Amino acid sequence: HSVEEVWDAHCRAASAELTDGAASDGLEWFREHGFRTRPFPKSHWYLYPAMVEKGLRFELPYQERLKRIGAELGARLHEAGITWWDKQLKEYEPLPHYQDLPGMWEEALEEASHVSIDDYPFWLLTARSMQYSWGSNVAIQMIREVAANVAGHGGVVMNPEAARKLGLAEGERVRVASPTGWTEGAVILRQGIRPDTLLMIGQFGHWKTPFARDGAAPSMNALTPMLLELTDATGSGADLVRVRVEKAGNRRAQP
Predict the structure, then answer these.
(1) Statement to judge: residues 196 and 127 lie in one domain
(2) How far apart are CA 205 and CA 215, in angstroms?
(3) Three-state DSSP class for 162?
(4) Same domain, yes or no, for 152 and 236?
(5) Domain membership of residue 179 as a residue range
(6) How confident is the model at residue 116 (pLDDT cuts 50, 70, 90)?
(7) Residue 172 sits in a domain of what CATH number?
(8) 104 vs 156: CA distance, rounded Å
(9) What was the pLDDT predicted at 17?
(10) pLDDT exceeds 60 at position 183
(11) What is the pLDDT at residue 239?
């Protein structure tokens, strides 16, 4: 079958599905109209009607099952003499309470690295680069070419006012350092980001993978410490770290 025949069949099937069989318009119809929709009740936007229909109940905000599982896990761990997970066991609570998460990060970094957190004034975050499937397709050249067209990809996204105070301009290469490592990239100025925050889209830093190892995109992987204090009850952590920024030629940016 030709490409047009395949897509024509696909379009006819979609038309039939959306109209409950009343129409079977093909590729030419979609070329003319662009897309096809059907009414969708506003009540279907929400979870509650489905919960009622299925006879389910909400456990939130009181999560009885979570508290019970935490108690059972704690008992088994303590029977084996395991106490190093006690902090995480406290997260199995029926009602969540406020935690000073930034403060937890700052304290853990200071204690583990013996640094002053004031020397690292920025919070570094990351985000998915959607054309990448995490690290499974980083060796494909076409994917990198697509990524080059994604706003913010391949550099260090920074607030213009914060950059001005450091004497940094759009496109200028900077070195971003944390207590555990450093990476380099070009400044990308965006008004929508907080002055105390930086963003590196994607998680790279491959040193062996063909093609990917030659990429110039900065990565926060080398900047994020692996600390038990920053590991939550699920065994994971947050893509978050305190960093400092300087021009790439300034050697003091190394941790």
Answers:
(1) yes
(2) 8
(3) helix
(4) yes
(5) 101-253
(6) very high
(7) 2.40.40.20
(8) 25
(9) 95
(10) yes
(11) 82
10 — pLDDT class (breaks 50, 70, 90): very high
User: Of 154, 244, 238, which Cα lies nearest the Cα of 200?
Assistant: 154
Contact at 8 Å (CB) between 218 and 176? yes
| pTM metric for this prediction | 0.67
Write out the DSSP string of 182-215. EEEEEEEE-TTS-TTEEEEES----SSSTTGGG-
pLDDT value at residue 141 = 85
pLDDT of residue 250: 55
pLDDT at 234: 72
Residue 225's identity, in one-letter code, is P
CB 201 within 8 A of CB 163: no
Q: What are phi and psi for residue 4, nearest 5 degrees? A: -60, -40
Q: What percent of the chain has pLDDT over 90?
A: 50
- Annotate 152-190 with b (16+ C-beta within 10 A) or e (fewer): bbbbbbbbbebbeeeebeeeebbbbbbbbbbbebbbbbe
Query: Nearest CA to 109 among 122, 98, 125, 120?
Result: 120
Which residue, among 89, 76, 66, 100, has the nearest Cα to 233 in the 3D structure? 89
Distances (CA, A) of 1 to 5, 6, 9, 151, 223: 6, 6, 10, 38, 51
Kindly tell me if the per-residue pLDDT of 255 is higher than 70: no
Do 173 and 250 form a contact (C-beta atoms < 8 A)?
A: no
From CA 162, how far away is CA 167, in angstroms rounded? 9
Same domain, 112 and 202: yes
Q: Give CA separation, 4 vs 26, 123, 137, 182, in Å.
A: 10, 50, 29, 50
